[in-house]
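Retro notes (design track)

What went well: tokenization of the new backbones is finally stable.
What didn't: we kept losing track of which sequence belonged to which structure.
Fix going forward: every design gets posted as structure first, then sequence, in one message. First example under the new rule, 285 residues:
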């Protein structure tokens, strides 16, 4: 027994409390290490590739080739077992037992293979959490000659653009992924330097509005806001924002979009046409 003021507390109480706290520290430490591992890139890319092959062979049918879920299995990158795994220890213990009640068979894999599988899954979790590191591959897979024919023919792109004019050297100005994005959605994307765009209403391709008052005087600019009660736009010549109250059709407001042809064409693109056009634009160095 141990004295504690006027009370006597059994000594085993302290040992029990100490054991509980120690166990809690061990569990917390293990969880923290696992979380740190998930936030750290996997440096052994050979292990990741071996693990990917193992995953496709043994797990891909249910969980998908990328471990993000398939026909009969959940997303493994969201699995608590995988997220709290340390170099395959928890994952290996789980695989040796499986979940037969849920259609998950057991797998008796050697420890090195379990470690490789864990490396692949940890790498997938890391990439999910750091999407900017994801690399888009195989963008330029189309036929540039077919893209040129589409540009000058069915696509009607040459009615507004010229390979020797405004598009000259565009293949050197943008990366293929950026170029394809600008082809489909050209408004408000960063330039070749990667610098963020300014306000959309200040861009040359901004939606434009022309406001005409009762006397017939008109002013135009990049549209900022248009409601039933007012219209606001950026007047480039004056270098400032201007607003007008509206009362029915006074003043008269006319909106035009220089990119309307792109917007109209967006639902018409086929994958083949899109890739062919991308390949053609990339070739314009």
């Amino acid at each position: 027994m141990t004295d504690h003021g006027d009370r006597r507390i059994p000594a085993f109480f302290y040992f029990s409390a100490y054991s509980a706290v120690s166990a809690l520290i061990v569990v917390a430490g293990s969880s923290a290490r696992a979380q740190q591992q998930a936030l750290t890139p996997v440096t052994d890319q050979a292990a990741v590739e071996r693990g990917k092959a193992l995953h496709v062979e043994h797990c891909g049918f249910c969980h998908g080739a990328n471990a993000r879920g398939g026909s009969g299995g959940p997303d493994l990158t969201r699995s608590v077992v995988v997220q709290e795994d340390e170099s395959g220890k928890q994952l290996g213990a789980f695989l040796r037992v499986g979940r037969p009640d849920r259609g998950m068979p057991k797998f008796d894999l050697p420890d090195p293979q379990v470690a490789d599988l864990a490396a692949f899954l940890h790498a997938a979790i890391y990439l999910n959490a750091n999407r900017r590191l994801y690399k888009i591959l195989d963008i330029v897979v189309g036929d540039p000659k077919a893209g040129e024919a589409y540009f000058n023919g069915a696509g009607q792109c040459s009615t507004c653009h010229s390979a020797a004019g405004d598009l000259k050297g565009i293949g050197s100005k943008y990366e293929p992924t950026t170029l394809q994005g600008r082809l489909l959605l050209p408004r408000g994307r960063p330039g070749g330097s990667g610098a963020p765009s300014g306000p959309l209403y200040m861009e040359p391709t901004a939606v434009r509005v022309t406001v005409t008052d009762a006397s017939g005087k008109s002013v135009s600019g990049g549209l900022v806001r248009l409601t039933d009660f007012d219209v606001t736009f950026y007047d480039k010549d004056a270098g400032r924002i201007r607003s007008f109250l509206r009362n029915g059709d006074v003043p008269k407001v006319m909106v035009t979009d220089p990119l309307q042809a792109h917007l109209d064409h967006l639902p018409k693109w086929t994958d083949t046409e899109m890739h062919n056009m991308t390949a053609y634009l990339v070739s314009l160095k």
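Added context from the reviewer: Residues 1-7, 9-31 have pLDDT under 50 and may be disordered.
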